[in-house]
Specification:
With 540 residues, the chain is an all-alpha fold. The chain is built from 21 helices and two strands. The chain has a two-stranded antiparallel ribbon. Helix 3 packs antiparallel against helix 20, helix 13 crosses helix 15 and helix 16 packs antiparallel against helix 17. It is found in: Membrane.
């Protein structure tokens, strides 16, 4: 069926050609960039000893002669952590020159190899993997909700205060705002947490370590699936990994922040890769091909039992399947029924076997109690309400939010449906349409946390190559990463100001000191000869 091209394709996507690797000078610069970012990650881990999201009780560094020093110097610790944060972000931006490809006058662009990027990513992840949590205290909620589950209480009815008691060691570590709220996570997440609690008990440090291992497993799935999906979309693996996996948002919030989004996104992306492998195969969809497709759909459904947004991916997979089956109403209904059966079976199995039932469906809106500045409808409602107070009209913020949020939800639903239709018509690939739809849903939802942006950035990194997407994604990731406090809570204003001033001075000095080692400026003149082009192999 011939269809007109969608303007979204031209605006966001173009195939990336194979290009030569880096020359000797660029390789040396890459090593310096790698070391610069790794130094920043080490500084973040050190600063987190005093300025991170440390537990209220069972802090292993408290009273230790050397490791306990940062906690007694809050301004210095915050400065170290913020300096490291800026260094990692700057290193990531510099790495982008080699990941996207650098054109020199009349010569083609050159790009670093997959192995070079993998080594860089590993070196930046390691320090954050052993340091204290940063930027969020959600991991302590995971620990408390896991014990609630293990004790046989219903985590979808009781918060830590009611189930464990106010003086319990895990309740004390949970942020006050979440101590009386039920768990907003799916049964698979709490089921895994229950198993972790069975191993660690009330040992907070051990619990954090195992939850971080789980998050690293999710990151590993992202690193495995993202380049494979990207190559199916005609995008260079390293540019997709740079924007999706090496993104400081992922390093700071999924690795250091220990969020269960890591496993959710990893499973979702792995499921998309398997379904795309089957759908794009020239062989009939039966036997092994059908098993791969069903397995991919089941993995996506499993991801949705961690957090429900992953389920959206099945809608786009279903549209691609309907197109393969003939692109008519009959194929559409058959595809919807087929995927609904898979999702229902997986959800029922996890909900029943875990013993948690379906109470999680009623707690999905728990986080809406927070007024998030990154949420477009919430920001409009709050700013407009504040304007009414200034004009003497009274505070009507709540009424305005009840108006802006439903309108935003309707707009997001419209965009998502339109993207599904584009997949069904063959104008967009499923992963690209999914990224656009999820991006709209995230920005127009009532609550937006920084790591929610990865729901859209990671799949779009595998498809969208135009500056119209990449530039805003890079800019937003950069701004969000450098303005958040590593403690995961509000700091004393004068401490923030002092640390920010010191960070600017130190980072400015570092830029001056490395002006001849790192590519802070675009090079002029004839470059060194590049090595011969090396073709990268397709997904395996």
């Amino acid at each position: 069926m011939d269809v007109a091209p969608d303007h979204t394709v031209a605006a966001l996507h173009t195939d990336e050609p194979e290009v030569p690797g880096l020359n000797a000078r660029e390789t040396l610069q890459l090593r310096h960039i790698r070391l610069f970012g790794a130094t920043g990650a080490v500084l973040m881990a050190i600063g987190a000893l005093g300025a991170g999201a440390q537990p209220v009780l069972q802090n292993p560094t408290q009273g230790v002669r050397l490791l306990g020093v940062p906690a007694r110097m809050p301004t210095t610790s915050l400065t170290i952590a913020m300096t490291g944060t800026v260094m990692v972000v700057l290193a990531w931006l510099l790495l982008g020159r080699f990941a996207i490809g650098r054109a020199h006058q009349n010569e083609p662009a050159r790009r670093l190899s997959r192995s070079q990027l993998d080594r860089t990513l590993l070196l930046w992840i390691l320090p954050l993997s052993v340091g204290p949590p940063m930027f969020s205290r959600d991991v302590y909620s995971y620990l408390a909700q896991s014990e609630i589950t293990a004790r046989g209480f219903n985590p979808y009815e009781l918060g830590p205060n009611q189930a464990l008691g106010l003086d319990h060691v895990l309740t004390r570590t949970v942020p006050t705002i979440w101590r009386d709220t039920p768990a907003p996570y799916g049964p698979f997440s709490l089921w895994i947490g229950k198993g972790i609690w069975a191993v660690t008990g009330d040992n907070i440090v051990a619990g954090i370590f195992l939850h971080r291992l789980l998050a690293l497993g999710g990151v590993a799935l992202i690193v495995w699936a993202l380049p494979r999906v990207a190559r199916r979309c005609g995008v260079a693996a390293v540019s997709a990994l740079w924007l999706g996996a090496a993104n400081p948002l992922l390093l700071f919030h999924l690795v250091s922040g220990v969020h269960n989004e890591a496993l959710m996104i990893g499973l979702m992306l792995a499921g998309i890769e398997l379904t795309m492998r089957s759908l794009e195969s020239s062989e009939p969809m039966r036997g092994k091909s059908l098993a791969i497709f069903v397995g991919g759909c089941a993995i996506i459904a499993l991801a949705s039992t961690i957090k429900i947004p992953a389920l959206i991916a099945l809608g786009f997979v279903g549209m691609a399947l309907a197109r393969r089956w003939g692109a008519n109403w009959r194929s559409l209904v058959a595809s919807a029924a087929f995927l609904f059966a898979i999702a229902a079976a997986v959800t029922l199995l996890v909900s029943v076997v875990s013993g948690l039932g379906f109470g999680w469906i009623h707690t999905l809106g728990t986080a809406n109690a927070v007024r998030s500045w990154m949420s477009l409808p919430t920001a409009i409602g709050v700013v407009t309400g504040f304007g009414g107070v200034l004009l003497g009209l009274g505070d009507h913020t709540t009424a305005l939010l009840s108006l802006t949020r439903p309108i935003a939800a309707a707009v997001a639903a419209f965009i998502a449906i339109r993207m599904m239709v584009a997949v069904y018509a063959g104008r967009l690939q499923a992963v690209g349409a999914l990224g656009v739809a999820v991006g709209a849903i995230v920005l127009l939802s009532p609550v937006v946390q920084p790591w929610y942006l990865l729901w859209a950035v990671v799949p779009l990194a595998a498809w969208a190559t135009r500056p119209l997407f990449r530039f805003p994604a890079v800019a937003l990731s950069t701004v969000v990463c450098v303005i958040l406090m590593p403690s995961g809570k509000d700091e004393v204003p004068y401490v923030i100001i002092q640390a920010a001033i010191a960070t600017v001075i130190v980072c400015g000095a570092l830029i001056l000191a490395t002006r001849n080692l790192l590519p802070w400026r675009a090079e002029s003149g004839a470059p060194e000869p590049a090595p011969a082009p090396t073709a990268y192999s397709g997904p395996s």
